[in-house]
Design the sequence.
């Protein structure tokens, strides 16, 4: 390999190649509504992984698959004993999800490596591209288990025993698609982790910015609520004395929705999932399960908000004679990124002429777990109309390209630091 | 055949045989929780029908299956040209339903015919026992289609094209279980229709009565509501500007629950079914479907109540920016039974020494449709704790027997009228 001729500052990625790569990848699991459905460890996930590995091989990367199915592709550094720079995201999607969430960060990283390769640019440190397994968590809860186990926050066996709605085990499905690797899923020392991703919210678009540099990721608290009532034929059962689990749940759902207005500070609270039993139009519901998702930059605020909610749930439960059971399913603390790397994202955006915004990430990402074991930063690009996790999820191609240019220079700078 | 020796007034059914018959039948589709699941046109429905027909054959009845799968068993009268007395109910059940709903009315009728047969009692008029297809409507909506088509209220082809949740057609499933008969499904002149059934409510038990004689069936209005919102990743989407379809639906569900307290008169209103999309804990719901069931003895009151609800739904829809679409799925007017037959039920209960109650039926029954084409009455027995459409649904065996004794004498009197 030879040095890139000319000032490295003028190096840019190939936006057209990026677009083609994204479009090829988005054919896998394509939905009628123009999105993709590539649930973790599904046949579509396998197909996306196979294609990804084919592209990694074209770059002569050293490929490694670990016991969680995380895929790493390593590009040698001049000083291969130096700790590497890692970048990537995930190839899995939500059910009827979009074409950008996750995959843009992997294909963007690929485009960075292709740009380095075609320009014969060597870096001091190795660069590793990564696809993390099951970031979405919509088939196997919870989310981000690949990076979670890798960073030491989750236990391999526990994740292996997670099941999907049809009762299939995570490990069995991982084996079935041929991606249970030999390599232990365990963190190794790294110099910097960059994750490039769509914003999944409306802020950048609203502020007319192209690059977002999140100072970190908000905390995330998940609860599962189980409400019990008494089933009866609806006609002959008087209203008095009913114990309607769905009515109790409906009151609780509205309390969740009102919660953010009751606390000072930024917080969002949502019920995304509800399951009603027996779910027959002429039977009073006797069992309802629903989820609560609370997020804030302020962990303490989120906990206090939950306390308010718990009290309200209890009052509703007693009033309606519908006992509830609460499971605290998942808690991730807010995660401030590495200040130096975040500043580097802002600096590169400015140098490249892209308007940028210092913000927070409302969504969880593999970067949350990576941040626990390595200096981490993220790069956001705008989501059109703020839409994400839906088939119409979209980002302008020029914004996609802009994000990869920022990623390229962040990586180059980190990878050439001694 | 010879006349019964002794006063026919002293004739009683065999309660022990009734219990055994009920227990044998309840093995078909038995659930772990002690109930039954015999969804219409399922393998379990077929098995129950086969057993029923075997028992009809033992009584040498003339068996007839019509194009809707309704099963008739005719016992000859002395004057076979006279219009017959019909009695029966349905063998299908709710998902995880009880062992008494429907089947008691068919097995009770069977016990009446067995009692007549073993005592060699002939009647002037023919007596027909019937099992109506798909009374429950939980697999194929709407309910009571067998009697609905027979009475001329529903169209055969329309019912044939109804599909279950997996897309299977009614007619295909009817053929599959071998119960699409040759005979046209069409009413013929009948003298009287009696339907024996559990109350499915708490009134008889509360009033300490054994026999209920409903003056008729309340009206029944079914609506399907479709709410639309905007899906988004929950974390990065601020609370302001959200269009959360589940929150809109939750508000509407509570309005349905509050409706009876807003109108004068007796009315019940229930949401039994809700389907939320995409039903993922980290996506704001963008589609919710739920059902509304309104019942009252007063048709006009039910319509006025719906008008109130519609206005409230519209206001919620506008406030939350969640458009709604309403389908008026089904409307059955309140149905007053034949006064003479209802009085006969009360008289026989008194003569037999069973405390009785003049009441209304809150549940729809095949008797609703039958009432449109023939003099009709029903006989109720208490539901323990008022529970029905659940696995713990229960009725004391002595109450079951009492109801069949009342049925026996009502039938004898009607069948011997010239």
Sequence:
């Amino acid at each position: 390999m030879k040095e890139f001729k000319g000032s490295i500052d003028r190096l840019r990625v190939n936006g057209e190649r990026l677009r083609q790569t994204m479009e090829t990848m988005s054919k896998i699991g394509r939905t009628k509504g123009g999105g993709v459905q590539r649930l973790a460890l599904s046949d579509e996930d396998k197909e996306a992984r196979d294609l990804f590995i084919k592209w990694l091989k074209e770059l002569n990367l050293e490929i490694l698959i670990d016991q969680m199915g995380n895929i790493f592709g390593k590009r040698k550094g001049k000083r291969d004993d130096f700790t590497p720079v890692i970048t990537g995201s995930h190839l899995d999607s939500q059910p009827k999800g979009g074409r950008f969430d996750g995959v843009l960060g992997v294909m963007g990283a690929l485009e960075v490596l292709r740009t380095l390769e075609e320009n014969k640019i060597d870096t001091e440190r190795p660069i590793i591209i990564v696809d993390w397994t099951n970031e979405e968590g919509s088939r196997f809860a919870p989310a981000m288990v690949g990076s979670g186990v890798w960073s030491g926050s989750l236990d391999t066996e526990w994740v292996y025993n997670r099941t999907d709605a049809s009762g299939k085990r995570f490990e069995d499905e991982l084996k079935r698609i041929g991606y249970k690797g030999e390599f232990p899923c365990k963190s190794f020392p790294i110099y910097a982790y960059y994750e490039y991703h769509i914003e999944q919210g409306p802020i950048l678009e609203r502020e007319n910015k192209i690059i977002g540099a999140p100072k970190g990721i908000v905390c995330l608290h998940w609860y599962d609520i189980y409400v019990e009532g008494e089933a009866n034929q609806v006609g002959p059962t008087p209203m008095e004395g009913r114990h309607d689990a769905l009515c109790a749940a409906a009151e609780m759902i509205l309390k969740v929705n009102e919660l953010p207005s009751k606390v000072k500070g930024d917080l969002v609270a949502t019920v995304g999932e509800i399951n009603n039993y027996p779910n027959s139009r002429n039977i009073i519901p006797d069992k309802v399960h629903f989820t609560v998702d609370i997020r804030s930059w302020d962990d303490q605020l989120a906990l206090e908000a939950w306390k308010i909610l718990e009290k309200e749930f209890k009052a509703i439960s007693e009033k309606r004679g519908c006992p509830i059971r609460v499971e605290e399913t998942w808690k991730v603390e807010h995660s401030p990124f590495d200040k130096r790397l975040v500043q580097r994202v802002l600096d590169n955006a400015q140098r490249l002429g892209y308007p940028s915004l210092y913000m927070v990430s409302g969504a969880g990402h593999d970067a949350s777990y990576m941040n626990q074991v390595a200096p981490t930063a993220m790069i956001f690009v705008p989501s059109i109309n703020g839409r994400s996790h839906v088939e119409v999820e979209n980002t302008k191609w020029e914004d996609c390209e802009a994000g990869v240019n920022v990623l390229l220079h962040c990586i180059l700078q980190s990878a050439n630091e001694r």
About this structure: Chain B touches chain A through 68 residues (CB under 8 Å). DSSP finds twelve helices and 14 strands in chain B. The CA atoms of residues 213 and 358 of chain B lie 5 Å apart.
